Structures are given as structure tokens and as C-alpha cells.
Amino acid sequence: MDVDSRLLRSFAAVAEEGNLTRAAERLYVSQPALTKQIKQLEQLLGVRLFTRSRAGMALTGPGRALAARTPDVLAAVDTAVRETRSAGRAEARVLRVGFLASAANEATQDIVADFGRRRPGLRVELRQAAWSNPTAGLADGEVDAALLRLPFPGQDTYRVEVLLTEERVAVLPSTHALAGRARLDFRELWDEPFIAAPPTTGPFCDYWLAVEARPADRPVKIGAVTDQPDEWLSAIANGYGVALAPASAARFYARPGVSYVPVDGVAPTSVGVAWAPADDENPVVRDFVRSCLRAVGEGPAGPTGSPTTGP
Amino acid sequence: MDVDSRLLRSFAAVAEEGNLTRAAERLYVSQPALTKQIKQLEQLLGVRLFTRSRAGMALTGPGRALAARTPDVLAAVDTAVRETRSAGRAEARVLRVGFLASAANEATQDIVADFGRRRPGLRVELRQAAWSNPTAGLADGEVDAALLRLPFPGQDTYRVEVLLTEERVAVLPSTHALAGRARLDFRELWDEPFIAAPPTTGPFCDYWLAVEARPADRPVKIGAVTDQPDEWLSAIANGYGVALAPASAARFYARPGVSYVPVDGVAPTSVGVAWAPADDENPVVRDFVRSCLRAVGEGPAGPTGSPTTGP
DNA sequence: CGACATCCATGCCGTCAGGTTATGGATGCA
DNA sequence: TGCATCCATAACCTGACGGCATGGATGTCG
């Protein structure tokens, strides 16, 4: 009689995709396994959830009823997990902060330093996330706050403060014909293969391919897919393709074989600090956000900068 | 990363009992199994949920956070299951009605007949529940409506219409000294062993032992525990004890070896129809409730009876 | 009309999660 | 000191569940 939330996640995936095979690969299980899970759920509920057909899996009436309720259930589970983990960290006097590679770059140190002055008893644990985890652990309660490039998937369900905005630059193999240029236009890169983030990251992936700055008849060519900064830099250095990056990457990820060139024709990129609405009243998280705003308000140069107005 | 709702149910039981051993028997699993489940949940969440001690299991801070959220999660799961099953029955053109043995008795046939006239296309499936299932399947979505003796556990979370009220009578072995009496007082039964419902039914069990009509220094003696009408009648006929029953039981459960005698000094008993709040707008359930009220309004004798005032 | 592609179901098998029983260690209590 | 209580651990066993390979149904296209 006990409906496992794992079955509900599978159900939700199949309901959304309308297709077992695709849902299976989205969930990283085999298609027969998913067939069995759905069967099991149907038997557990005593109800037929899908009508199987050549075209795929279509929801029945009861299936729609369940699909309508599933988000509530999964959200309740996620909330419970998130709050429990957060309470655990609070008890251990730890604030865990997730960040995506090259999110806050040099600002990060200033933020942590400022927070350390505000909350001497607390330890900040920084967690670097792969690009395939675009909320850097915020979604599953692994972290209390995250430093992210904006926009990120699910942004509307979190609180976000924008911290800073910077140009995007092109990252090229040093052997590339354009690598010596002082500046270039994004149009010159239309036909280059790009090093992309995993396609599961959706808008994030598209954003760093700048698909919006391309004509429809010049689709992006993918030279390689990487999930980590070092993979990414290696792929570029090896000539598999080029990429866009925030300007600060030139300072943080300088290495032999890779060149950074300012580029016109793509919008700048912003970094924000994000947290869960449930932590709105959490004084530690609030202090961390204050530290973020303060640190970037002071400017990246640190103590020599003059204080500016923070909210 | 996936928190199974079964683990949450286990967690909730341990949190409530504050004791692994007792929680284990409440959940019908062994104590080591529960130990492992709690350990697993703690590992999954990366948090210590209980402080173990000689005295039992006490919640930690994160444990309290989880305990605060668990009811939401379980309620969401139960709602989802209930609504899905209900949708399945609606699609199959079936209204499933649970009833406890001797709940509505003769009224039941009138109700079903009336409903059949209102909704010719629908089939009513009657499900008799054991006493150990005091909501007759309403709680787990097995049925759309239930005919129950009032009060029942969890009554506040459902909609209830009272249908009829009747005297309670004593049920005695025919060989019993009091069996020939035209009438007796409940005090005369204080020292008799009673045939009880399973103790897990709590208030329901107490109600039919009429513990409220007894002095504190005369605790009830239990002669046997039964979960079904036939077990119950057999136990009485075999002289294991006596019992209370609604007056209509004398007509519905008359059999050799069992005598029914009106009894003074215990409150009468009511029957109600109950349904889930989620079905408030469900036209089929509403019609069924109307049929219930109509049928008892007409009186149990059927078309010859004169209309009486319903609740 | 037949080869093919797509999509879901089934059979078989190996692994491991999760249950049970039996037992151990810690700790109050008589 | 022996006992009772309570949780943890060990050893073992069953079966749930996932993966692979394959089958059946059904559109599609050359």
C-alpha cells in the first residue's frame, strides 16, 4: 500500500515525456525498468494510469488525477529534505554555499572574508558544482545558498540578489587564427564548433552558446560536451572548439594553450546569490546575503575600496 | 537521494513512540529492521535524527525539523493516492461504499435502492470491513464513502452526516443467567467478560465496551478479541463473554445460542455516512449522501413506514 | 509489399536491499 | 549480582529491481 516517491518521480517523468523510452533515459534507467515501475505503480493503486499505444504513453483519467497531485507530493518531500538538512547544518554551525565554476570568481574570497567577520563562530563550506547541477545543490537542499550565473533553471522558485555583471569573452585555443586578435565580433564565431555544457541543463547550456545571438539558419555546432572547468579548458586547448566565458575567467582560468579575447555582439552576464524562500527568516543566510552585497559593493579590490550603498 | 515515503512513515512512528521497539511492533516489522531504516534515512539526509540513549530515541534539532514536515508529506501522498483511486472508480462507473459490520443494517438496502434510481448507470460496490479497519477503507482511498458507527477515529478529517440513532442492547450466550430477562441494567454486566474489538481500534473498541459507563474501580474484563461478526457471534455463543450491539443487530444477527436483551444505562449509538472532503463537489458522492438521508428519512420499514424527522 | 523504425512488453539472470532471528553491549533497577 | 530494557550488530535468506536481449505491434517509406 505504500507509494514510494521514487515511483512518483518516474511517473511524473513518463507523464511529461509521454514516452517511456525518453523518460527512461532522462531518469538514467533502462526502458524495461521503467515499464516495470509504472506497472507496479498501477498495481499499487489498482488503476490504469496510461493508455499504451504506438504513439507512446497517454494519461488516463486517473492518471491525470495523479499527475495533478504529484507535484504537491514531490514538493512536500523536497521541502522536508531541504529543511532537515538545513537544520542539520545550523546545528553543526556550518553554512554551506554552492557555486558553479567561474560564478563569483574573485568576489568569492571577499564574500567569505566579510561573512567571517559577521559570524565568527560559523564555518563556510564552499561546494563547487558541476554544470549539470545548475542550482549548485540548492534544489535538493545540499546547500543553504548558491552563487550562480543568471538566469538559472527554476530561478523563479528561489530568492535571488544580483551581485555583479561583466562582459562575456571568447575562449579560444591559442593556435586558433583569431586567438591573437585584440577584439572580435561574435559573428566571426558562428561557424566555430563550441564546447557546451551537458544538454540536460537546458537554458543554461543555450545561454553559454549564445543561441539568441545567432541567426536561425546558422545553428550552433557542438565540438564537445563537458561538465567541469578542467575538462572544458582541456577541450578548448586541444582544439575541439571555442567557448564563451565571463571576463573574469581570463584571470581565474588562464593557462597555456588557451586565449581569451573580448567579443562584441553578445549580452553581458550576471552573477547572483540565491537561496530558498524557506530561509528568508534564517539570520545566517540573511547575513550571508548581506556579505555578498557588501563585498561586491566594495569592489573586487577588497579593503582599499570605498563602501558603497548596499540594500 | 530519494527519500521513500515508507522511511518517513517509519520515522514518524519512531518519533512518536520515542522508542524503537514499540514503534517496530506498531509497524509490524522487527526492531533491527527499523534500526536499519532509521540509519538509512539518516545517511540519506546526512543528518543525525535521533539521540540514542538508554531511555529511547529522542529527536535532535534536524529530527524535529523533519518531524514537523513529515505530516505534510504523508498527507500529500495519501491525498494523491485517494484521488487517483477515486478517479479510477469514477471512470469505471463504480461507487465503492465501505461499511462496518452492523453499521447501517436494514437501512443499507433502502439506500442502495434509492441510489440505483438516481444513478441507473452506476454500480454500487459494497465492501464490508473488519473492525480493525475503523474507517472501512475511507482513510486509504479504498472507498468513496462509508457507513460507520459514530464516533470513529479521525472523524474530524471527514464529512459526516448522521443517519439514524438506535439503542444499544446486550448480546448474551443463550445459556447465560440474564439471557431470559426482558430488560437489564448495564451495571449487571460490570463483572462479565466482554468480547472486544482489536485494541488497535482505540476509541471504537472502548465505545463498544462502554468504558465510560463503568466506575474506575471496575475495569472491563476481556473474554476474547474478535475482528469479524461471525467470530464475534461464535465467541458469544461459546460463552467466552458478552457484548453490546446496536438494537438492529437483534434482527440482523439472530442465531441460535445468542440472545439479545435491551439494556439501560448506556448511551444510544448513531450511524453516519462519511466521505472525504475532496469529494465535496463529486456529484456521485453527493447523490449517494442524498440517498442515505432520503432512505432513513423514509424510515427503515420501507414504503409502508411513515416519514420521520431526520437529523 | 516488404524492410525498417519506433515503442512498449517479456524472459532471464545477477545483485543487493531489506527483512528475520539470534546475540551482544550498555545501563538502570531490585 | 542478576534481571530487564533498549538499541546495535552479525549472519543469513528471500525477493525486489535493474540490465540485457528479444519479441510483438504498428506506422512509414522506398
Please tell me about this protein's structure:
The structure is a homodimer of 311-residue chains. Chain A is built from nine helices and 13 strands. Chain A has 311 residues and is α/β, with parallel strands linked by helices. Chain A has three domains: 5-80, Arc Repressor Mutant, subunit A (Orthogonal Bundle); 93-164 and 270-304, Periplasmic binding protein-like II (D-Maltodextrin-Binding Protein, domain 2, 3-Layer(aba) Sandwich), CATH 3.40.190.10; 168-267, D-Maltodextrin-Binding Protein, domain 2. In chain A, the strands form four sheets. Chain A has a five-stranded mixed beta sheet with strand order 4-3-5-13-6. In chain A, strands 8-12-7-11 form a four-stranded mixed beta sheet, with helices on one face. Chain A has a two-stranded antiparallel ribbon with strand order 1-2. In chain A, β3, α5 (107-118) and β4 form a beta-alpha-beta unit. Chain A binds chain B through residues 1-6, 8-9, 45-49, 60-66, 68-70, 72-73, 76-77, 79-81, 83-88, 90-91, 140, and chain B through 1-6, 8-9, 45-49, 60-66, 68-70, 72-73, 76-77, 79-81, 83-88, 90-91, 140. Chain A binds a DNA duplex (30 and 30 nucleotides) through α3. Chains A, B: Keywords: DNA-binding, Transcription, Transcription regulation. Chains A, B: This is LysR family transcriptional regulator. Chains A, B: Residues 3-60 form the HTH lysR-type domain.
